[in-house]
């Protein structure tokens, strides 16, 4: 952790879909950089309720290769807009129990405004454009495929 | 007659439940409007009519609405049926 | 992690000053709630440079009881402005090596906009109002007390 | 004559380096302007004059600028000298 003589690392976009439990600490650590003073993160977690129904768990699926491409585009948009260093976007697939993370987004930057705004933009864009689907599983043993209000082709329905 | 080719159709989420498959290979005209391609899928899986107004295609991983746009398909191209997304 | 029959936890403000290394994962975990879908975090880390000088480490001190009070006021302001659930503000004291966290702020909320905006407000306010001081220690064995540009009484100097 | 009382003065960061102490107990008038209290501290630690324009007081943990504001001090009150902050 000397920093002083470090070869300056190239900006990295780290995109991962996994059935494993997500670790906020690990994703944060992936974007830390000695030339940065700020890491901003967003963690999406499973809620236990939707419109009064008790949610037992969520199940996620994705069109993985396209989802990775769409996230790569979002990373590229972010780099056009803000001077950020590293970007990590993790999304869990399969069953996600209540209170566990479905997504972790982390961005590092020299100064805080860039990473704070970039993280906000990243989760907004992910919800609007990345082909991932969530099915809520309710206590009453029913289930429902959800849609983000940000989904760009079905928002008005 | 427009030449035909075989493409791979992928179904996700609700569309996969309705179609009963997650992927299938079908033969379609190489030049076809997106809306016409959708009609071919409805012929194979009539239940898909229910979600017509909610879905979009991804052709070679790029979004294409189910409208008048002319698709130029190559053998082996991947076309996905994309219901409203809900990641995050 | 049932969520369904959980007694709904009261909103918590968790404020801590410590000489220990901060864990982003642990602070995140402290604010997770089954009724929330979002956790937003900000991590301040030690940069290895300032105006061309190589920074070896930082040393932090605080007027701890007042700093805790000021952070409590910020938490209260946040609750006036946004519907958030739990708020955690951790700040490390003493030596902080390059790339390690000096502060971790985490906020949970049902929907993401509230916690994203609250975290941004929290770090802005912390920098403007909370009596904490950072001394940068440079490679050349000099050092300098820093001032935040947000510091409300000395901004113009 | 205004009655006097003993208060605890705390110094932080650069002001602690200049004063050479982190806290001290001093005797001051119970009613005193903030600017006058600062002069008393400068008498004790002349080097503090250098940072006069950069500091603020915290009286019983509330910020008070070094101006005309009248302070009403009680025995044992805590007054801190607060250089520009730099947390975060």
Automatic annotation (TrEMBL), chains A, C:
Pfam families assigned to the protein according to its UniProt record, in alphabetical order: MoaE
Main location: cytoplasm
UniProt EC number: 2.8.1.12
Highest taxon listed in the record's lineage: Eukaryota
CDD domains associated with the record: MoaE
Pathway(s) per entry: Cofactor biosynthesis; molybdopterin biosynthesis
Sites where the protein binds substrate: 111-112, 127, 134-136
Top EC class for this record: transferase
Alphabetical UniProt keywords: Cytoplasm, Molybdenum cofactor biosynthesis, Transferase
InterPro entries per UniProt: MoaE_sf, MOCS2B_euk, Mopterin_biosynth_MoaE
Positions in coiled-coil regions: none
Reaction equation(s) it catalyzes: 2 [molybdopterin-synthase sulfur-carrier protein]-C-terminal-Gly-aminoethanethioate + cyclic pyranopterin phosphate + H2O = molybdopterin + 2 [molybdopterin-synthase sulfur-carrier protein]-C-terminal Gly-Gly + 2 H(+)
Subunit relationships: Heterotetramer; composed of 2 small (MOCS2A) and 2 large (MOCS2B) subunits.
Note: This protein is produced by a bicistronic gene which also produces the small subunit (MOCS2A) from an overlapping reading frame.
Reported function: Catalytic subunit of the molybdopterin synthase complex, a complex that catalyzes the conversion of precursor Z into molybdopterin. Acts by mediating the incorporation of 2 sulfur atoms from thiocarboxylated MOCS2A into precursor Z to generate a dithiolene group.
Name of this chain's protein: Molybdopterin synthase catalytic subunit
Species of provenance: Apodemus speciosus
UniProtKB/TrEMBL annotation, chains B, D:
UniProt PTM comment: C-terminal thiocarboxylation occurs in 2 steps, it is first acyl-adenylated (-COAMP) via the hesA/moeB/thiF part of MOCS3, then thiocarboxylated (-COSH) via the rhodanese domain of MOCS3.
Keyword presence, Cytoplasm: yes
UniProt xrefs under Gene3D superfamilies: 3.10.20.30
Subcellular location(s) per record: Cytoplasm, Cytosol
Location, primary (coarse class): cytoplasm
Pathway, per record: Cofactor biosynthesis; molybdopterin biosynthesis
Entry-linked Pfam families: ThiS (PF02597)
Chain positions found as 1-thioglycine: 88
Keywords: Cytoplasm, Molybdenum cofactor biosynthesis, Nucleotide-binding, Phosphoprotein
InterPro entries attached to this UniProt entry: Beta-grasp_dom_sf, MOCS2A, MOCS2A_euk, Mopterin_synth/thiamin_S_b, ThiS/MoaD-like
The organism's place on the tree of life at top rank: Eukaryota
Residue positions where Glycyl adenylate is found in the record: 88
Family, as annotated: Belongs to the MoaD family. MOCS2A subfamily.
HAMAP family: MOCS2A
Oligomeric form and interacting partners: Heterotetramer; composed of 2 small (MOCS2A) and 2 large (MOCS2B) subunits.
Function statement: Acts as a sulfur carrier required for molybdopterin biosynthesis. Component of the molybdopterin synthase complex that catalyzes the conversion of precursor Z into molybdopterin by mediating the incorporation of 2 sulfur atoms into precursor Z to generate a dithiolene group. In the complex, serves as sulfur donor by being thiocarboxylated (-COSH) at its C-terminus by MOCS3. After interaction with MOCS2B, the sulfur is then transferred to precursor Z to form molybdopterin.
Misc note: This protein is produced by a bicistronic gene which also produces the large subunit (MOCS2B) from an overlapping reading frame.
Protein name: Molybdopterin synthase sulfur carrier subunit
């Amino acid at each position: 952790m000397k920093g002083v003589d470090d070869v300056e690392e190239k900006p990295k976009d780290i995109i991962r879909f996994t059935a494993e439990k997500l670790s906020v600490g690990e994703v944060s650590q992936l974007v830390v950089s000695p030339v940065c003073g700020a890491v901003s993160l967003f963690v999406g977690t499973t809620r236990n309720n939707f419109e009064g129904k008790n949610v037992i768990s969520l199940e996620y699926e994705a069109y993985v290769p396209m989802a990775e491409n769409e996230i790569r585009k979002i990373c590229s948009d972010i780099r056009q807009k803000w001077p950020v260093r590293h970007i990590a976007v993790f999304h869990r697939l399969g069953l996600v129990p209540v209170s566990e993370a479905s997504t972790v987004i982390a961005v590092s930057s020299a100064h805080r405004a860039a990473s704070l705004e970039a993280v906000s933009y990243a989760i907004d864009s992910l919800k609007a454009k990345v082909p991932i689907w969530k099915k809520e599983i309710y206590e009453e043993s029913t289930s429902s495929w959800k849609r983000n209000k940000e989904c760009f082709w079905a928002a008005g329905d | 007659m427009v030449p035909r080719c075989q493409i791979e159709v992928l179904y996700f989420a609700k569309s996969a439940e309705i179609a009963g498959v997650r992927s299938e290979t079908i033969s379609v005209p190489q030049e076809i409007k997106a809306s016409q391609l959708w009609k071919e899928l409805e012929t194979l899986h009539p239940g898909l009519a229910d979600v017509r107004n909610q879905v979009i295609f991804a052709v070679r991983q790029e979004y294409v609405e189910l409208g008048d746009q002319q698709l130029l398909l190559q053998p082996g191209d991947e076309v996905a049926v994309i219901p409203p997304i809900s990641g995050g």
